[in-house]
Amino acid sequence: MTNPSDPSGKARREFLRRLGGVAVACTGAAACSVAPQSGGPVAGPDPSPVKDYDWTKHHWAFGVDATKCIGCLRCVEACKTENDVPGDAHHFNTWIERYVYLEGETKARIDSHHDPVNIAASGSEKEFRFANRYQDAKVEKAFFVPKLCNQCTHPACVQVCPTGATYKSKDGVVLIDDKYCIGCQYCVQACPYGARYFNPTKGVTQKCYWCYHRITKGLRPACVEACPVGARIFGDRNDKQSPISLFIRNNRVQVLRPESGNEPNVFYVGIDKEVS
Amino acid sequence: MEPVGFWGHLVEIAPYTGYVYPNETAIPWTVLIVVYPYLTGLVAGAFTVSSLYHVFGMERFKPVGQFALLTALAFMLFVPLPLLLHLGHAERAFNTMLTPHWTSAMAMFGMFASFYLLLLMLEIWFMFRPYAVRKAQQTSGFIGRLWHLASLGSDDLSAKAMRYDEKWIFALAVVGIPSAHGLHGYVGFIFGSLKSREWWSSDLMPVVFLFSAIISGVALLIVLYVLSCRLRKIPVDLACLKGLAYVLWGFAMFTLALEGLEFANIMYKGREGIEMIVQYVTGPLLVPFFILQFSLGAVIPITLLTYMIWRGTTGKALIAGVTVSALLVLFQVWMMRWNVVIGGQEIAKTGKGLLTYQMVLFHKEGLLTAIAVAIAPLFVLLAMVRVLPPWSAGAHAHQRSVS
Q: Model ipTM?
C-alpha cells in the first residue's frame, strides 16, 4: 500500500514552472526527479488526495476503550498485513502495551509484544503474543493499552518535516507522501509517542494513518475490524451519531501527553496515570 | 534484524532496559549525525579565528588568518556528506531547497549552508586573486591558463584594485561572522527545539553548540598550525600560538559553564522522566559524559592552559602544552556531540527505559565511514595549501586600514 500522494504537488509543479527559463535549465533534471509521481491530485482549489472523496466533509477520530482490550494482538497482526509494515518486532503502526501492578509495588511493570521474553514465547518475530510471565505473581491490577498514531491537531512530525512530505489532511489524518519523503527521520525524532519508524527497505518514514485507503472508501481501519471486543472505536466526528461521537460524548475521555501541545485525536478510556 | 549490506539502510537494533516504545528500538540517527555537527562546528570555529584577524585586526593571528579560511572551506565542503549518506533517499535531498517546508528547523539548512559556502569561496577568491594573477603571469602553457581562469580574468594589481579587494574581504568577513555562527547555532536549534526528548529540549542547546563549535575550531587550528610549522620546518610563531591559547582558554571556560548550566537545569527542574535521566548519567553516561567530556576534555585542558598562562610558560613547553590542550578540547567536543546526539536517543521517549546504540564498523553509516568523512577534509586542506599557500606570501597582505 502506498500512502496517498501530497495534494500540494500541484503547488510544487506551479512553483517549478514559475522558476522560469534559466532556473529551469539549471534545475530541470532535479525538478523532473522530485515532482510527485503517484496519483495526481484532482482538480479544485483544495483537492483531496483520493479520487471521489471530499476530505473537507469528514473529521475522523479514534477511540480506545482500554477496559475492553484483552491483549489478543489481532489488531497488530491485521495492521501488519494490511499496511505492509515490516514483519519484525521493531516496526509497528499499532502496538499493545501491558501494565501490571504487583502486590506491594507502586509502579507498573510495563511490556509490549516486542519484548524479547514475549518474542520468545511466540517463537517468531512475525507472530505476537504476551507471555504469561506473571502467572506465579500476585497481580493487584493489570490492563492493556492499544497505541497508534494520534493524528495530532498540531503534529510535531509535520512541523519538523523539511520538505512537507508529511502533512495534515483536511479530514484530520496525518499523511506521508512516500514519493517525496527524503528519509531524514527528523519526524521520527519529533513524535513524542514513538508512533513513527523508518522503513529501511523503502528508505522512508512510515506510521499509522488510520487505514486511509480504507476509510476514504467508507470502510473501517483494519485494526478496528479485527478487534474481537470492540476496544477500538472509529468514526466521523461530523456525524453526531457515529461510534466515535457517541464514545466521546458518553465517556470521560483523555488523551496521551496533553502537555505536549500536540492535541492528539485518539481518545482513551480506562487508562492509568502511568500511561503516556 | 541484522544490518543489511554496506549500501543498504542501517537497521541496527538497540538492546534496552525498562520499557521503550517498540519503534524506538531502531535508533534513527547514527554516528554520522555526530560527525555532521562536529564538522559544522569546526567550520564555525576556524572562521572565528579568521575573523579575529580580518575583521578585528588582531595582527598576532596573521600566520593563521588565511589558513583558517582554507580550513573552514575544506571542512565546509564535507558538511553535507554525512547527511546525504544518512538519508533514506539522498537523491531527493534537493527537495528541501526546491520546496522548503518553512516550519521545519531543518528546511533552511541547505540554503544557509549554500550561502555560507559561496561566501567562503568568494572571500578566498578575493584573498588569493593577486596570487593567481602573479602565477598566471609567471607560468606559461596550460597551467598558466588555469591560473588566468582562476583569477577570472581580473588581473589588475594596482593599489586601487587591491584596496577594492580588501574592502570586499573585510565586508565578506563581517557578513561571514553571523553566517558561520548562525549556521552552527542553527544546528543546535535542530536538536534543542524538539520537545519529544528531554535530553535535547533545551533553550541553551544552540548556545552550547555554538560555543563548543568555536573552541573546536580554534583547537583544530592550533593543532594544524603547529603541525604545518613542523612540516614546513619553520619555528612556531609563539605570539600567535599564545593568542590562540587565550581564545581557547576563554571560550572553553564559557563553554564549560554553559554545559554545566544546561545539565543543572535538567536535573534541577526534574520534570517527567528525570529518574531515567539520573539512571542514565550515573550509569552508561558516567564515563563518556563526566570522565571523558567534562574531566579529560574540559577540566584538564582548562587547568593546563590556566597554569601556562599564570606561569608565563613559553618556548617548546608552551607549544607542547597548548597542542595537548587543543587535542583534548577536540576530543571534548567530539564527546559532547556524541553525548548529545546518541545520548538523547538512548533515553527512551517513554521516560521508563534506556537503549544502547550499537555502532557497526563496516556500513554506509558505520564507524569507518564516519572516520573517513571526518578526516577527508584534512586531505583536501593539504591539497588546498599546496595550490594556494596561505602563509601570507603571495596573497593579500592584510590591511587593517581598510576598515
A: 0.91
